[in-house]
Fold this protein.
Amino acid sequence: MKSFYDGERLSMHENKYVTVEHHTVDSSFPLHWHSFLEIEIVTEGEGYTTINGRDYDVSQYNVYLISATDFHSFKVSRHTEIINISFNRNLVSDSDLSKLFFAKSEKGYKFSEDELRRIIYASELLEHECLIDGDAVGQLLSYILNCIFRKRGEHDEKEQIGQHANAIRDALLYIEEHFREDISLEEVSRRVGYSTSYFSRLFKSA
């Protein structure tokens, strides 16, 4: 599997980046993580992927949504083709970020042939926009994300947790960015502008 840095289809401006890459996996890929988010679309193959200790089947029509805090690996039993979309959170709207961070823990989704065809077509358009540094990158990425959100029923759930939703989301983003460091509750509370005791109660209730 090629690394993220091997990709040529890169759109980068205003601290935003996204790549669309086509990977071939013939055996296994060890446990790893990234500092960005990923959408992995299986177009052919068979095996399983382990995400945060949970096994998911790898087969055609499966899609996985992976955040920077997720540890994952691949083990396939035959030739497998994957479309990988990597992006940072600065490219995602506030609404989609809320869906990402207030979502269920499910990481893998099975789509129908027609559903996956639409996602693949959108990824091809996204790949073209990356090549030309086009203006539709954000909209196409949002479309693909919302196909996933709809699949898991996210559109039927509330996207906010009361008036403090933005603070909770910002805290989660900060934790995701710095989770490999020795961060404290006091530091996160100060980051979002709340007292430690109040934010602790607020975060637990979310």
Observations:
- The chain has a mean pLDDT of 79.
- The CA atoms of residues 16 and 90 lie 5 Å apart.
